[in-house]
Design goal:
Radius of gyration: 26 Å
Number of helices: 0
Shape: elongated
Distance between the termini: 17 Å
Largest sheet: 6 strands, antiparallel
Strand content: over 45%
Low-confidence stretches: 1-25
Number of strands: 32
Helix content: under 10%
Length: 375
């Protein structure tokens, strides 16, 4: 689109589109951070510690062990993976969430009765966001050897991250993890002879179509529940940046307020991603930045501003980063470049100058190693 800004104005047009292509790639998902904790008493509202460094697109997994068979309720935005009780002795549950960056440092998990609990949490990167983690059929027993079950995910042999998680009753401690499960080892214990609860979890990278973690070892015989989770590696995707529906060209006056300057679309062939940085070029020549007080990237309806708005740009190259990145899904979604002309008082001399601008996305960075496509 184009805008003309006379004596103070700005003419703006949007680049029709940018596309850049896919190579199949995969690497093991990575445990980027862990955390754990326990209830410290018999409660119905349990504070669960989340890992540090959470950012949009991360996979979060929380495993939760509570005394008794009391049922577990997860907060809004979390999806349960399984919840299995061993009689009335203890229960093990797990849930996941794809982070949007608003999570904070804790969540509250609720049990139907007042019980002790312990939990572990993971922040995982490099995962496939198009499907939930695979989960086995939980095993139960009473011994010193919790035994996570064999699991065969639907995706076959890929660079999969496997997690063994097990919870137990009372006050035993974790003595050893399953063989080869050396990644992200974490354990916690609410140490009480009555109403106690323990938990441990650990990961293993293996390219295989199925996996049986084998046994862990506790310090004493306890009633336990154990399960196996599998996290699929990221699947290669083409991310296409295309032209949107641009507003008509217009001549706008100084101080006339924010307006649409152009539109672009984003879409993935599979899964999700995030534009973590973006560059807009205002024009190939001239000094249109002289008449612009602000440039921002927004949702199509203007209600969400991505990154941080750039005020009083000092050149035709405007770089965006920080704040909330632009989300990408398999549904083509339109976003806008919006500009605000400077006021009369802030316009450069000489009075009466006009500034022509044709803004377009000239560079962009993805949070994941997918392939940029388009032109």
């Amino acid at each position: 689109m184009s805008f003309k800004l006379k004596l103070s104005l700005i003419l703006i047009t949007l680049f029709s589109g940018l596309s850049i292509g896919s190579s199949a790639w995969a690497a093991f998902p990575s445990i980027a951070a862990t955390n754990s904790g326990n209830s410290g008493g018999n409660v119905t509202s349990h504070t669960v510690n989340l890992p540090s460094g959470i950012s949009s697109g991360n996979l979060l997994i929380v495993s939760f062990s509570n005394d008794g068979s009391d049922t577990v309720t997860w907060p809004s935005g979390w999806t349960g993976l399984f919840s299995t009780a061993n009689g009335t002795a203890n229960r093990l549950s797990a849930a996941y969430r794809i982070a949007d960056g608003s999570e904070g440092t804790t969540i509250t998990v609720t049990t139907s009765g007042s019980q002790g609990s312990a939990h572990t949490s993971y922040r995982i990167t490099g995962h496939y966001s198009g499907a939930a983690p695979a989960v086995g059929t939980a095993a139960t027993g009473s011994s010193v050897n919790p035994d996570s079950p064999s699991l065969t995910p639907s995706w076959g042999a890929e660079d999969t991250l496997w997690l063994s998680v097990y919870g137990w009753d009372s006050n035993a401690s974790n003595s050893s993890y399953p063989t080869n499960y050396s990644l992200g080892q974490v354990t916690n214990l609410y140490n009480q002879t009555v109403h106690g609860a323990g938990i441990a979890s650990a990961g293993y990278n293996l390219n295989a179509s199925s996996q049986d973690p084998g046994t862990a070892t506790l310090s004493a015989t306890e009633t336990w529940v154990a399960n196996t989770l599998a996290i699929r590696p990221m699947v290669a995707s083409n991310i296409t940046l295309g032209s949107g529906t641009d507003p008509s060209g217009a001549t706008v006056a100084p101080g006339s307020g924010i307006r649409d300057a152009g539109a672009f679309t984003l879409q993935s062939t599979t899964g999700t991603d995030t534009v973590s940085a973006l560059t807009v070029t205002l024009a190939g020549s001239g000094t249109p930045y002289s008449g612009i007080g602000e440039v921002r990237i927004t949702s199509n309806d203007g209600s969400i501003t991505y990154f941080s708005a750039v005020t009083n740009p000092s050149s035709n190259t405007v770089s965006f980063s920080g704040g909330t990145g632009i989300p990408i899904t398999a549904t083509q979604t339109q976003f806008k470049i919006r500009i605000t002309p400077k006021t009369h008082a802030n316009m450069p001399v000489p009075a009466g100058a006009s500034y022509d601008s044709s803004p377009y996305v000239s560079d962009w960075t993805l949070a994941n190693p997918n392939t940029k496509v388009g032109s």
